[in-house]
Write a structure and sequence with these properties.
Largest sheet: 5 strands, antiparallel
Number of helices: 5
Structural class: alpha+beta
Shape: globular
Radius of gyration: 18 Å
Length: 232
Amino acid sequence: MIEKILPSRVAVAEAFSDLPGAVLLPGEEELTRGFVEKRRKEFATTRHCARRALGSLGIAPVPILKGERGAPLWPENTVGSLTHCTGYRAAVVAHRPDALTVGIDAEEHAPLPGDVHNSIALATEQRRERELRLEHPGIHWDRLLFSAKEAVYKAWFPLTHRWLGFEEADIELRLDGSFTAELLACDLRSAPGTGVPAVPAAFHGRWLSEKGLLLTAIVIEKAPGTQGLCGG
């Protein structure tokens, strides 16, 4: 399903329930210590999806461990992203020459709790949401905004190894299934000596509402020169 909002060069694997045959490889078992059984099955299924997606690229099964801030560690010269929510697990991977970074997120299509919404949405974003609700009240735009911010962070962190707060990305959702995230954190990491590579000053993504889910996806190709880059 999520392949509908991703380019064909990206490999996708997804599941709508936990898979009985999903197993954990060495190193992954340790990551699930203390998990309740439900969470462990969810974790195993998501890793299983990751290996299926990697297999589509001709890469043999490997453990998908965790790195800094829990980000998944992918095989050399690949990029990827994982997501899971009630009734859905997915993995997206690509060869590094085909993508600089990727980020996906899935959420149940339901209202976002008000306290959460107020903590993640900028005033400009809330204004746009009100306008979108008038045009298309069937979408929970608050939950979609949250999903888009999650996808932005997953695409951002592997490039910068820097935390990105909800308030550091101004996201414009559109009725046509696209969105743009202006990265307000650019000035925080463009100072000389930061060691952070220049990345696009805005991320462009797509979203989908289907089967009771909200899905968001971002694929960033190599940076086009220095124009329009953070730090460029």
